[in-house]
Write a structure and sequence with these properties.
The complex is a heterodimer of chains A (274) and B (344). Chain A is mostly helical and 274 residues long. In chain A, 72% of the residues lie in helices and 0% in strands. Chain A is built from 11 helices and no strands. Chain B has 11 helices and 14 strands. Chain B is globular. The chains are: A mainly alpha (274), B alpha/beta (344). The structure holds adenosine-5'-triphosphate (ATP) and magnesium ion.
Chain lengths: 274, 344
């Protein structure tokens, strides 16, 4: 290397701190770049996603009775909802990784709103969820899933899943911040397993033991799955549900708002002060 | 007197039972490089992170460029640039993208950020590698890039936490050069290090910290006079000669020679380095003693500690304070931990 003559005079400093939107967009751009330039991430998550979809569709599917509709039509909406959760869990590890590697220290030492930085992160993670969501939906159609509802209802279902993904991303970001290192974050993310499987996502709740049914029926994943399934099938009754589509959609939106209202402030506070 | 760039008084910080800062006092004047020197767990990182407003001390007072860090952290962040203990760069992005990102977060406009990033990359010798993903950089390049990112906001105070740890001698020299360049251009620097040598090379003032407290403070020369005498180090060819060498050269030193059985090493703290070297070589020659190696070197941090505190650097001393039994003679202090790692 040639002699270094660092001349700070050649740097023109900023006249005022970055605005919240610029800060959020800058941080979001980094998450997106990291994702698209690490193709193995996309490949691994798509392949594992497809694998489980095939297992449920062809291995377990035959043994599960879903009444008037084929199992594939019952399962795919539920499967997409849970796959968003599994993808979202990556946010937890990547937030923890940033803490562990000092990247978060750098960001927090800069004169920008920490809330904006964290929000940018969550928005980017949600955007990435949309990609995974699309991939899973395409595979679902490929293995025989057909929406019974209108096109608008199908789109609404996808939108609802994204809203839910956004809400859960706050939960995962908080988990990552609390965990502080990748291993612990991955450990905490295992909580999604019981949450996903003790729900109506893959099997009708009615087939579970009596004591488990109230838990399964009222937890947020089931509420969400019921709403998405009602939209995808065009009729809640086809999914063995008593209420109206509007009821399930309303309830799931309430859950999403509730999750954000609780977990976003917790995550922001943790990020600002820890 | 001008406002100190850093003014810490009685800072304390505990993490559970561990007291990382135990009443740390440090006042740094602008226009100089201050090196905080200390062993593992001394509290260096905790102090730097407090100055960077990433840690809030439990008690004490902390001002950065005259601004109260507890009350106006956002204002403090406007005057600092931080390069933490581990290079905080995104490996999936190029060097240029990394620096530009930080510049944008400092509030620079798009074009301004790009121009400043180019200046920084160029001046740190990274212009050629600027458009390669950082994942392909060497450790030294990553460090320099990290430094560049902390500089692109033209901060008044640069905080560098162990900037050269893990670098080979050449990369270390390059980084030292870069730091000197910045200082010459008027940036104040607060850096931490575990090497007296590094502090001596870069700083006008050295603050030695142990267990969250300042135990010595002064210019490199002052500290060397007090605690860091140069050392003549000899490695005898035969282990039987160690005692003979120590005996023969003991009179040249200003303290008793130290011997290390496992490596046949004899170290003698001396006052008049070069003259003593010549005497030592003559004395060894006269006795016809076979030596593998002889040299004059700066004292290690451990030796400084020994002189200042009368005891070696605590081995780790992180959580439990049980003193592990010293094993074989000649084991270097401060390197090995009993391997009872519990998964954290
Ligand atoms: N976030 C934290 N949580 C718990 N303990 C911590 C935390 N940060 C530091 N400590 C503890 O505080 C003490 C001082 O740590 P610090 O990192 O400041 O030391 P250091 O001088 O930088 O050491 P090193 O040379 O190893 O980097 C250590 O015992 C460390 O384990
Ligand atoms: Mg440290």
């Amino acid at each position: 290397m040639t002699a270094v003559t660092f001349d700070a005079g050649r740097i023109t400093p900023a006249t005022r701190p970055a605005g919240a939107v610029t800060a959020a967009a800058t941080v979001a751009a980094r998450s997106v770049r990291k994702f698209v330039r690490t193709p193995q991430l996309l490949v691994v998550s798509t392949v594992t996603g497809a694998m489980f979809l095939l297992i449920f569709r062809y291995v377990f599917g035959g043994a599960i009775d879903t009444g008037p509709i084929p199992y594939v039509d019952f399962m795919v909406p539920g499967y997409i909802v849970t796959s968003v959760l599994f993808t979202g869990a990556n946010a937890s590890s990547s937030v923890a990784q940033d803490l562990e590697e000092g990247f978060t220290d750098r960001l927090r030492s800069l004169p920008v709103s920490r809330t904006a930085v964290l929000a940018g992160r969550v928005v980017a993670e949600t955007g990435l969820l949309a990609l995974g969501l699309t991939a899973t939906a395409v595979i679902g159609v490929a293995v025989g899933f057909r929406p019974h509802g209108t096109g608008a209802e199908s789109l609404a279902a996808l939108g609802l899943i994204l809203v839910f993904g956004f809400a859960f991303t706050w939960v995962f970001v908080l988990m990552g911040l609390v965990a502080g290192n990748v291993q612990a974050a991955q450990g905490m993310s295992l909580l999604i397993f019981p949450l996903s499987f003790v729900s109506s996502a893959m099997v009708p709740v009615g087939t579970m033991p009596g004591w488990m049914q109230p838990v399964a029926e009222n937890q947020p994943i089931t509420v969400m799955v019921d709403a998405v399934r009602s939209l995808a099938l065009g009729d809640p009754a086809l999914a063995g549900l008593g209420g109206s589509t509007g009821h399930y959609v309303g309830l799931s939106l309430l859950w999403a708002v509730g999750l954000v209202a609780v977990f976003a402030p917790l995550a922001v506070r943790r990020y600002r002060t820890s | 007197m001008s406002t100190p760039i850093v003014e810490a008084r009685g800072l304390t910080k505990s993490f559970g039972k561990v007291q990382a800062l135990a009443g740390l006092d440090l006042v740094a004047d602008p226009g100089q490089v201050v090196a905080v020197l200390g062993p593992n767990g001394a509290g260096k990182t905790t102090f730097v992170r407090s100055v960077a407003t990433l840690v809030s001390p439990d008690s004490g007072e902390l001002r950065v460029a005259g601004v109260d860090a507890a009350r106006h952290p956002a204002q403090v962040r406007r005057v600092i640039g931080l390069a933490g203990q581990y290079a905080a760069v995104e490996p999936a992005m190029t060097g240029r993208e990394n620096v530009t990102m930080v510049a944008r977060l400092y509030g620079q406009g798009r074009r301004q950020a790009r121009a400043n990033a180019a200046v920084v990359l160029d001046q740190l010798g990274l212009a050629e590698a600027a458009d390669r993903p950082v994942g392909t950089y060497s450790g030294g390049m990553r460090r320099r890039l990290d430094l560049g990112a902390s500089l692109v906001g033209a901060p008044r105070l640069l905080l560098l936490d162990e900037p050269t740890t893990g670098l080979d001698p050449r990369s270390r020299n390059e980084l030292w050069e870069a730091i000197r360049g910045m200082v010459a251009a008027g940036t104040d620097v607060l850096l931490t290090t575990q090497y007296l040598d590094e502090a001596d090379q870069l700083a006008q003032r050295i603050v030695i910290v142990d267990k969250g407290r300042v135990i010595a403070d002064g210019t490199p020369d002052e500290l060397k006079r007090r605690a860091g005498r140069d050392v003549v180090e000899i490695r005898a060819h035969r282990s039987g000669d160690v005692a003979v060498v120590a005996e023969a050269l003991g009179r040249l030193g200003v303290e008793a020679p130290r011997t290390e059985a496992g490596t046949n090493r004899v170290t003698i703290p001396v006052d008049r380095g070069r003259a003593v070297m010549a005497d030592a070589v003559r004395a060894l020659d006269a006795l016809g003693l076979d030596v593998d190696d002889i040299g004059l070197r700066r004292p290690t941090l451990d030796e400084v500690f020994l002189t200042l505190t009368g005891s070696s650097i605590d081995d780790g001393g992180d959580v439990t304070s049980g003193t592990a039994a010293v094993t074989a003679a000649g084991t270097d202090a401060g390197t090995t931990h009993p391997s009872t790692d519990i998964a954290a």
